[in-house]
Amino acid sequence: MGITAGNTRQPAVPVYAYTLGNGEGTEVVVWTYGATLVEVRTPGRDGRTDNVVHRLPTLAAYEDRATNAYVGATVGRFCRNVAHGTFTLDGTRHTLDRNEGPHHLHGGTHGFDRLVWTATTERTGDHVTLTLAVHSPAGDQGYPGDLHAETVYRLDRTPALTIGFRATTTAPTLVGLTNHAFWNLAGADAHRPVDGHHVALNAARVLRFDEDQVPLPGPPAPVAGTALHLTGADPLGSRRLDNFYVLSDAGSWAADLHDPESGRQLRLTTDQTGLGVYSGDGLTPPRAGLCLQPSAWPDAPNRPDFPSARLDPGQTYTATTRYAFSVR
How far apart are CA 7 and CA 49, in angstroms? Predict the structure, then answer.
């Protein structure tokens, strides 16, 4: 469907689009560029099918880092930020690519969102699976160890989309992969911002950040009684969110998203312990989607009080999130 350009990590190679269908009216479109989730088409209350993730118009738009806020991409090696682009493993100090002022963000200038992944497919009676793989050599963006990573998209009949991540390494390193889709259950044809959505989060605490989105010292803060306490009772409205929530029960539900006009509802469950929530104010148009990003904790490599993001040889990193769709 296109050719990549201007990436020092890879020569120009074809980019392929895969469409996964469950035979029940839900389809998912994934591109090999960035292992990117481009569309999720699912019916609303009126039976009409529409795309419920924000997408960009062309491959060139996805390649343009000046305007593309990682829309739909697989983000890594380490999503979120690493303060001052440095961390220490086993007494060795490592310096990462600094692509967000003095800090490292979402894997660096040429992170996994900028690479073309290889793909294989599999279909069974219950689901269809797309597995995308990429190799990251030792020293890539400053990370130690050769890393083999996979992003697995699986669509079943219920309907639900499961996104899983796997990775192995040849040396101790950091890994934290996530998907950066922006959800809008109103559907692309509605041309409505997410302000009318109802959002409920299974989280009682949130990280406190400085002006660079680096976590402040100390424990997470409670959200009860604040504007960050999202229970789903009221529409999102004009709330501006760019926060990281500590999930109350990893493995249970993490977020419920509902659009009353279309009737569509999304329930997100994950085995991750934290959830980034961004209201998409920097998108074009603003607030065209809500980013729900299960992931490792920001600056975890420099915070021994946070869950570890370390991966050692002989281990396999895994992370799984399920997006279940229904209609009220």
Answer: 36
The token pair at 189 is 């044809």
Residues 169/312, Cβ–Cβ less than 8 Å: yes
CA distance 199 to 253: 13
Q: How far is CA 243 from CA 193, 251, 300, in A?
A: 19, 20, 15
d(CA 84, CA 256): 34
254's CB contacts (< 8 A; 6+ apart) are 201, 202, 203, 247, 268, 269, 270, 272, 275, 292, 294, 321
Residue 169 CB contacts under 8 Å (≥ 6 apart), including other chains: 145, 146, 147, 148, 175, 311, 312, 313, 315
Q: Omega into 285 within 30° of 0, i.e. cis?
A: yes
Q: Classify strands 178-179 and 74-75 as parallel, antiparallel or unpaired.
A: antiparallel
Torsion angle (degrees, nearest 10) of CA 321, 200, 194, 82 = -50
At a CB cut-off of 8 Å and minimum separation 6, what does 320 contact? Answer: 162, 163, 164, 165, 270, 271
SS3 content of the chain, % helix, strand, coil (to 5): 5, 45, 45
0.85 cut: is pTM over it?
yes
- Mean pLDDT for each consecutive 10-residue tract of the chain (328 residues)? 50 93 96 98 97 97 90 97 98 97 97 98 93 98 98 97 98 98 97 98 97 96 96 96 94 95 98 97 96 97 97 98 97
Phi, psi (5° rounding) for residue 88? -120, 130
What are the residues facing 168 on neighbouring strands? 148
For residue 257 the two structure tokens come to 């998203």
